[in-house]
Design brief:
Number of strands: 29
Oligomer: single chain
Structural class: alpha/beta
Strand order of the largest sheet: 9-8-11-10-12-13-14
Helix content: 25-40%
Distance between the termini: 33 Å
Shape: flat
Length: 690
């Protein structure tokens, strides 16, 4: 059995005995936290003492008179490798190393890191750390470094894996205060042996884990993470992800903190969008979203009915909801009548958000929720918390009762976080109006995400590899590159490759003016002015030929390309290899939208047609495709199909190609398709021939 399998990690966390190696009577962390959750046997190990915590203390692991399942190695880094070796020799299968100062610090640390990795792997040990903040299993073994860990109200709920011990501790402490349950919290540390993805896989399978939280600095295997995102979505387990190290300074701090490179945040965020993973920017957002996921019903809709007081705050709420794409739908006539009878105001004054009275909110919460629940125009109900602390118990009781009857999820909020008062174990209460709306938006988007069909490997893939094997040139010559894309139903513009002026003139005559003249084989043609467009006659063509000859004299290696001049909406599609996340597909609009405004969308292949439409819609400049300001509507469906085809090509060629760049890809008028004007396929210098 693999040491990092679900079964072995489960056995680790359910160990019935543990050796605390390096235990000290001054310990106010590991042992006090352990006995709050753990009912098994504890064996302190330290040659300096005969007794610790009122328990016999042993001079070494070998001196313990019975077999031990797990070891907590509490010694400094210089002694950790030796101790781990002794544990392995005495049959201990599970261990955690808390000490820092390994691969994240210096060359000596890297050597010691390799030493403990070799020991663990050669003995089939499941090892967490080093540089780990520990873990809590709320029904078992808990080796947690932070002092005075609180006990949660429930042993089911959030399961969290964090590459930062501090972030994990913060989420756990605040989550307990907010009366949320936890199954496991795990600090993966340097991940010398057991990775974040191993723990993630375990939490997906764990019955007590209802919501999974990941705090990520860097990922070694993006393809495995993608696979697990898909598995979590299929099993109906929401995943929340906090990415650490998005800024340049943050990325440097990640390296110093854990010794790992910070994964590209943009690509990771795109992967999250693809699989319904909820992307957050802070600890408070983790807890806000978790409250709704754990304490409210599910809804994928975006129509929100809001009961509150204060017209001015209602205006702000309306503006915020609109900016988030939430719909504050108007009520049915029957709802207006019911509110009119409660408030004694004209029906015309009843609008969503519903400006009611503080007294009505505190004393008639169940009535208000019931009215909105029966309206039929709302997917979510938001209700304002009362201002006075003494009104909260009855308010919460009413909300709980009404929530059981309402088909929609009910979320309580206070416009100011400090007014939040107390939390309840079964009522989501979000402090901050914007936070409440943002959390609803994120949760509804998660539930709206369906598992899309994964494309099968295409038949043309083998043929494409055969074509590539015919050349060693990189990028591929245009004629060859266009044959490759043609296998994936991406047709290229009419083109001829020639070397001399006579051939250029004949090609232009055959193709028909206007034409484009460019040099083949150059990496960045536009940067060296190696492209001339909209050439309308022979005179202009001869001038262009002379100018492009001066760019590069080698006409054999870099011949001339004569192409039909195409008009359409200019876009860019392509693929790149990321060191951590693997191959990704990119879409953007041409010109300044991509180069200056950095207006692009990203996904990891394979793409469904739904993924492709999402990518197009995310790019702000894509409005140009929809007939902007009277322009003819472009063939968006053909563009989406081209993105799907490109994603399949990227999969088929991933072992031989590092980059595919179709730029520009002209999107013609609706029904007329797409046409690539330039295709660059760059071979991977490190890839083996296939």
């Amino acid at each position: 059995m693999q040491p990092n399998s679900i079964e072995e990690i489960s056995k680790f966390f359910s160990s019935e005995s543990v050796a605390l190696i390096g235990a000290s009577p001054k310990d106010n962390r590991i042992y006090p936290n352990l006995i709050k959750f753990f009912k098994g046997k504890i064996f302190p190990v330290n040659p300096k003492y005969s007794e610790i915590y009122g328990l016999p203390c042993f001079p070494s692991v070998g001196a313990i008179p019975e077999k031990v399942a797990c070891a907590a190695i509490l010694v400094p880094r210089d002694g950790a490798g030796k101790i781990l070796g002794e544990c392995a020799e005495h049959g201990i299968k599970y261990a955690i190393i808390f000490a820092a100062g390994f691969a994240e610090i210096d060359e000596k640390g890297k050597e010691m890191d390799l030493e403990i990795k070799n020991i663990a792997e050669s003995h089939g040990m499941t090892l967490i750390g080093p540089n780990s903040g520990g873990f809590i299993n709320t029904v078992g073994l808990s080796l947690f470094w932070a002092p005075n860990a609180p006990v949660p109200l429930s042993t089911s709920g959030i399961g969290m894996v964090s590459q930062s011990g501090g972030i994990m501790t913060y989420v756990y402490r605040l989550g307990v205060v907010r009366k949320m349950g936890f199954s496991y919290i795990i600090s993966s540390g340097n991940e010398t042996v057991t990775k974040l993805t191993d723990h993630f896989r375990f939490l997906i399978a764990d019955e007590r884990t209802r919501v999974i939280v990941l705090a990520v600095e860097g990922i070694d295997d993006g393809l495995e993470l993608k696979k697990l995102f898909g598995e979590a979505l299929k099993r109906g387990k929401p995943v929340i992800l906090l990415k650490l190290g998005l800024s340049e300074k943050g990325a440097k701090t990640v390296t110093l903190h854990s010794g790992r490179l910070a994964t590209s945040g943009r690509i990771l965020k795109a992967l999250c969008q693809q699989f319904g993973v909820i992307w957050v920017e802070g600890v408070d957002q983790i807890l806000d979203v978790s409250e709704i996921l754990l304490k409210a019903k599910h809804s994928s809709g975006n129509r929100v009915g809001v009961a509150m007081f204060s017209g001015g705050v209602g205006v702000f709420l309306s503006d915020t909801a609109e900016s988030l794409g939430l719909n504050l739908a108007e009520p049915q006539s029957s709802t207006r009548e019911k509110f009119t009878s409660l408030l004694s105001v004209p029906k015309s004054g009843i609008e969503n958000p519903f400006d009611l009275s503080p007294l009505l909110m505190a004393t008639k919460a169940s009535t208000l929720i019931g009215i909105l629940a029966k309206d039929g125009n709302y997917d979510w109900i938001m209700i304002r918390c009362p201002l006075l602390q003494e009104q909260m118990p009855d308010f919460l009781r009413q909300v709980k009762d009404a929530s059981r009857e309402a088909p929609q999820p009910v979320v309580c909020f206070a416009p100011i976080a400090e007014e939040k008062n107390t939390n309840d174990e079964s009522v989501p209460i979000i402090g901050g109006l914007e936070k409440a709306l943002l959390s609803i938006k994120r949760v509804s988007a998660h539930y709206a995400k369906v598992d899309t069909t994964v494309l099968q490997e295409s038949v043309p893939g083998r043929g494409a590899l055969d074509l590539i094997s015919e050349t060693g040139n990189s990028p591929l010559p245009y004629e060859l590159a266009s044959k490759v894309t043609g296998l994936y139903s991406i047709p290229s513009v009419e083109t001829q490759s020639v070397q001399k002026l006579g051939g250029v003139l004949e090609a232009a005559k055959a193709i028909g003016y206007p034409v484009v003249l460019k040099r083949d084989g150059l990496f960045h043609r536009t940067e060296v002015d190696a492209v001339k467009t909209d050439i309308r006659n022979e005179k202009e063509l001869e001038m262009a030929f002379q100018e492009l000859t001066g760019v590069e004299p080698d006409i054999v290696r870099f011949p001339f390309l004569v192409q039909k001049y195409v008009r359409g909406v200019e876009t860019i599609i392509g693929s790149r290899k990321d060191p951590q996340m693997g191959t990704c597909v990119i879409f953007g609009m041409g010109g300044i939208f991509t180069e200056v405004l950095d207006d692009v969308s990203i996904r990891l292949p394979p793409l469904s047609i739904e993924n492709a439409y999402e990518m197009i819609g995310e790019v702000k400049g894509s409005r140009l495709l929809s007939g902007y300001r009277g322009k003819q509507k472009a063939d968006i469906s053909a563009l989406a199909r081209a993105l799907v085809s490109l994603s399949q090509m990227a999969i088929d060629l991933k072992d031989r190609v590092s980059e595919i760049d179709i730029n520009p890809l002209f999107v013609l008028s609706e029904g007329s398709g797409v046409v690539p004007a330039d295709i660059k396929i760059v071979l991977d210098e490190n890839a083996k021939q296939v």
